[in-house]
């Protein structure tokens, strides 16, 4: 039986995730406590009923968690010559009936965790056939079944966990591996690419990212986010007093306006507005609310640059204020992405009628 939530996060943001889990669990009526160590790259939340808590806190509603797992066992002091036997015993003692649809052997995305990459890779190759022979792992990947995770926190310390593919990230550690494109004006393009991949599902991407949609990029220079929108076939108004990459302007789909992104407003409703301006997060949230209050766009992706302290508190204040100031019900999804740093990325759109979530 699972005894805790186990969540991967960006190294250094463990206190923020711990605070978020603690507050959200209490609001959902679940008692428990978080265990976190700054720089570790993960947080554990010990709960009386971890399964029920996991249902109450779907991954899509968590901001600072890259991945959400249910901890099955915490195995310490493992013998380096035989780590498989304790894992098999743990599966048996926890009444894990299997089969699992896939096996992921992972390690923290942290300075201390990255040296474990080689061990995780080789151990996965050794463990996989043993699990299949014992009936704990399906013969081929099956996304309809729970996923088994083996998390190496050290050479002698392993956490055994599971995840529901319908309520977890489809990438190990919750990190989509994106490569910088040589034609992109800046590496910031990766942030918007990851946001569209992470905050929208496949069906939404096909419906909401279409040719000839009209978009605005506030604070666009040198054009990383504009470049992503153009690659999706959109026509973009790039708003920034700074220079844009000339090659991007030569394509004929970008109109560069030298203006202040906090002051400019469109003449008619746009499909998309994106914003990656470096400014106080509450000021950005307030301006984004104006766009929805005035019905200037249908969908938006924007970043909120967080302060050095009380980052979960600031996140909650900004997101709550954003919806309140929009004066309309919004669907809001926020996440600290892999390509984010001291910031979070938000996707927003008006709620459909009858949608309670």
CATH class of the largest domain: Alpha Beta
What distance separates the N and C termini? 29 Å
- Provide a count of the helices: 10
Give the spatial strand order of the biggest sheet: 2-3-1-4-7-6-5
Q: Please tally the β strands and state the result.
A: 14
Largest sheet features: 7 strands, mixed
Q: Compute the gyration radius: what is it?
A: 22 Å
Strand content: 15-25%
Classify the helix fraction into a percent range: 25-40%
What is the CATH architecture descriptor of the largest domain?
2-Layer Sandwich
* Low-pLDDT sequence parts: none
Please describe what this structure looks like.
The protein has a seven-stranded mixed β-sheet. Strands 10-9-8-11-12-14-13 form a seven-stranded mixed β-sheet, sandwiched between helices. Helix 5 packs across helix 7 and helix 9 (281-293) packs parallel to helix 10. The protein folds into two domains: 4-174, THUMP fold, CATH 3.30.2300; 189-350, 3-Layer(aba) Sandwich (Rossmann fold). Strand 9, helix 8 (246-249) and strand 10 (254-257) form a beta-alpha-beta unit. With 357 residues, the protein is an alpha/beta fold. The protein has helices spanning 14-27, 50-56, 84-93, 117-134, 189-199, 202-208, 224-231, 246-249, 281-293, 311-326; strands at residues 4-8, 32-36, 42-47, 67-75, 102-106, 147-154, 157-163, 214-218, 235-239, 254-257, 270-275, 297-305, 330-335, 343-350. InterPro entries: RlmM_FDX, RlmM_THUMP-like, RNA_MeTrfase_FtsJ_dom, rRNA_MeTrfase_M, SAM-dependent_MTases_sf. Residues 4-69 form the RlmM ferredoxin-like domain. Keywords: Cytoplasm, Methyltransferase, rRNA processing, S-adenosyl-L-methionine, Transferase. It comes from Lysobacter spongiicola DSM 21749. Its EC number is 2.1.1.186.
